[in-house]
Each structure stands twice: as structure tokens, then as C-alpha cells.
Write a structure and sequence with these properties.
By secondary structure, this protein is of the alpha/beta class. The chain is built from twelve helices and 15 strands. It folds into two domains: 243 residues, Rossmann fold; 134 residues, Rossmann fold (3-Layer(aba) Sandwich), CATH 3.40.50.920. A seven-stranded mixed β-sheet has the order 3-2-4-5-7-6-12, sandwiched between helices. Strands 9-11-10-13-14-15 form a six-stranded mixed β-sheet, with helices on both faces. A two-stranded antiparallel sheet has the order 1-8. Helix 1 packs across helix 2, helix 3 packs parallel to helix 4 and helix 6 crosses helix 8. The longest helix has 33 residues.
Length: 392
């Protein structure tokens, strides 16, 4: 029987990347993702991972380096966070448009200003439209498993797109948790050999990244969108095979205590574990409350989400980012759009909490449920509700 090993989640990430047998790692240190690439650099330096570890001068250079390496057929990995992800912004679109199978971990952290090194989702929510597959994790085991899943997906010849694994900064990256670690033989059959469908090769020349004149630009973007939407089938199939092989099951939309629930909390990331505690407490108090979480964020799992909330009367969407000037959080905006054309759709109310690493408690979720029930009768007090807002 496999045993669980206490391990820092960041180190579990680097262990999984090692086992995925990557060729090139390029990274620049930024809190709170630094432990991942520090450990990878040690594995390379010690000869435990036969890969090129490239020290670069910025996150822009890191993503540019892995784009170049992936373009010639290398299996690549990088990691970043917050301002580092923002600095990559220009190149992220290029990686998707060139159909490059890159895996990146984003240790989610607030964007400035003011300066914050603590966790929320503002960094990744600013990158919703880059064309990358994106998933969210809640526990160390899920993070470790997600790295293998990501390499499996991006290496599929029917996908050939980059993928982001979102890991809450500090609240998950720096936590020591018991994790089932694979022996290399256990994971070998799940991970396909890295073979790239499109790559630069002087013996078989192709063009990558040419100018897109107006006559072809729309069609090129449409192709990337279709590839991203169609990737959902591969994402799901890879999860299903993982569950069949190893007994841990993942899905685009996951639920907790939704049977008979009239009010559903909607979360993403590590705060989902706290939300589960709140659901248990509220159920004990006689409240018909459940929880729905997005694991797959891009491509947006529309059908699975609609099915998960089909019988709810109220949805309380919790965002960890405020879309400034949009009067809402980004997840709430997308949930409302996803349900807009449905008859008898549930009432949707937006709540924002945990910005810049502020603690999120069971009582916060209890307050959200109480407010959502009140808003269903009286109407919301505002377009969104900031939980825990203080006078400063």
C-alpha cells in the first residue's frame, strides 16, 4: 500500500516536474513560487534531473525562454506569481497562438498596488483570455496530481496548448501536507512520451509566428479558441484515466452537499476547504446549503456548471478579485452570463473576500449565506458585497 509523505506543497510540485522528465526549466524567483524553482535548480545541479535550468533576468525572459525551447520540441516548465505573471502577459498570448505544450504553475498572489505578497486571485483573473488551459487546486495532493495531469494534457496531439496549474500562494505553496508520492514506475504509463506535433526543424521547415494580416487574423484566433474549447474532452479523459489508475477523481466542476440544497456557495481554490466546513455547520443547523467549485476554469465548463446548479434557488459566488469598474468579481460575471438564457434560473449574488491574503473563516461563509437569503427577498444592497470591509 502506498504511504503518504509529509512534504511542502512547493517541493511536491518540483518532485512531480522531475518525474515528468522535462527538458528545459526557465524561471525567475518571485514570492511565493520561489521554493518550486529553487528545488528544481538543486535537482538539476545534483544530477537528479537531466534538464537545462536557465537562469534569466526577468519573468518576461522566463516565458520567452520556454516558448523558444518548446518551439524546437523541448518539454518545458516554468512557474511565477503576481507581478511576474503580469510581466509575462505579452508572451502568454504567443505561447497559446503558437500551440506550444508548456506547463506553468502560478502561485496565486495579489497584484499591486498597494504591494502585497499574500494570496488572492487577482493575478490569474487578469489573464483569463490568454488561451491557456487553466485549473485550480485545493490541497497538496491535488497540486501534485495536477502536474502529471497537465503534462498528460499538453502532450496530447489533439491539444498542443499551454496549461496553468493555479496554486494559492502561501496558503498552499508553503504548507506541509501528507501527499501520496508516486514511484517513477507508477506514473510512467500515465505520462506519454513528449512528442510535439509542430516544431521548428531545419530538415522539415515550417513558419511559426508570422505577421497576421487582417485577411487571416480572425481565422487564426478562431482556430485557437476551437482548440481550447475542444481540449476539454482531453482534460476530462485524462482525469478519468487518472481516477481509474490511482483512485483519485477530478472533474471540471465539483460539488459538496448539493443534494436538496437551495443555496449554493460558489468557490475556487483553497478556500473551498473552509467553505466545506461552513456547509457542514449550516447543514447541522437545518440550512439547505451546498458548495460548487470550478476546478477547470479555462475552457469554461458551461454544461457541467449548469448541471451542477440546476436545482438551486440562490447562488452566492465568491470572488477573490474585484474587477475594478465592472461592479463585480470576474467569476460572478461569468456565472451570470452562463445562466442568463436559462428559464427559471437561480438568483446570483456576488461576494468578494480574502483580498490580499485577508483571512477567510467559516463565519464569513455563514454571513454570505445569510446575506444571500436576505437579498433574494429584498434585493442586493449593491452590485457586489465586500465581506469584512473595514473603516480605514
Amino acid at each position: 500500500m502506498p504511504t503518504r509523505t509529509p512534504i511542502e506543497v512547493s517541493i511536491a510540485v518540483s518532485r512531480a516536474v522531475q518525474q515528468a522528465d522535462v527538458d528545459v526549466i526557465a524561471a525567475y524567483p518571485i514570492t511565493p513560487q520561489t521554493h518550486i524553482v529553487e528545488n528544481l535548480s538543486e535537482l538539476v545541479a545534483n544530477g537528479e534531473l537531466k534538464a537545462a535550468f536557465i537562469n534569466v533576468e526577468s519573468e518576461h525572459s522566463a516565458i520567452s525562454t520556454v516558448v523558444g525551447a518548446a518551439a524546437v520540441g523541448a518539454s518545458t516548465f516554468t512557474a511565477t506569481s503576481s507581478q511576474g505573471l503580469a510581466l509575462m502577459h505579452e508572451i502568454l498570448f504567443i505561447a497559446a497562438s503558437l500551440r506550444l505544450p508548456i506547463v506553468m504553475v502560478v502561485a496565486n498572489r495579489a497584484l499591486s498596488g498597494p504591494i502585497s505578497i499574500w494570496n488572492d486571485h487577482s493575478d490569474i483573473m487578469a489573464e483569463r483570455d490568454i488561451g491557456w488551459i487553466q485549473v485550480f487546486c485545493e490541497t497538496g495532493q491535488e497540486v501534485y496530481d495536477a502536474i502529471f495531469h497537465a503534462f498528460r494534457v499538453v502532450r496530447d496531439p489533439n491539444v498542443q496548448l499551454p496549461m496553468i496549474v493555479n496554486v494559492d500562494g502561501f496558503n498552499l505553496t508553503h504548507v506541509i501536507e501528507p501527499v501520496y508520492l508516486f514511484d517513477q514506475e507508477e506514473i510512467r504509463d500515465y505520462l506519454p512520451e513528449h512528442r510535439q506535433a509542430l516544431k521548428l526543424d531545419i530538415d522539415h521547415p515550417i513558419t511559426m509566428g508570422p505577421v497576421g494580416i487582417p485577411e487571416v487574423f480572425t481565422e487564426a484566433k478562431k482556430q485557437v479558441d476551437e482548440a481550447l474549447v475542444n481540449a476539454k474532452q482531453v482534460v476530462q479523459a485524462a482525469w478519468q484515466e487518472f481516477g481509474h489508475r490511482y483512485g483519485r477523481h477530478y472533474a471540471p466542476v465539483e460539488t459538496y452537499q448539493v443534494e436538496g440544497a437551495e443555496v449554493l456557495l460558489m468557490t475556487m481554490g483553497v478556500i473551498s476547504r473552509t467553505a466545506m466546513g461552513a456547509v457542514d455547520r449550516l447543514r447541522e443547523a437545518g440550512k439547505a446549503v451546498g458548495l460548487v467549485r470550478f476546478r477547470l476554469w479555462r475552457p469554461f465548463p458551461l454544461a457541467e456548471f449548469r448541471e451542477a446548479v440546476a436545482h438551486a434557488k440562490i447562488i452566492a459566488v465568491i470572488d477573490r478579485h474585484l474587477s475594478l469598474g465592472a461592479h463585480s468579481g470576474p467569476v460572478c460575471l461569468e456565472v451570470r452570463a452562463a445562466l442568463y438564457d436559462l428559464p427559471n434560473r437561480p438568483q446570483v449574488f456576488g461576494f468578494i473576500l480574502g483580498l490580499g491574503g485577508r483571512d477567510v473563516t467559516v463565519n464569513d461563509f455563514a454571513e454570505i449565506v445569510a446575506r444571500a437569503e436576505r437579498y433574494a427577498t429584498t434585493g442586493p444592497e449593491a452590485e457586489y458585497t465586500l465581506i469584512g470591509l473595514r473603516e480605514i
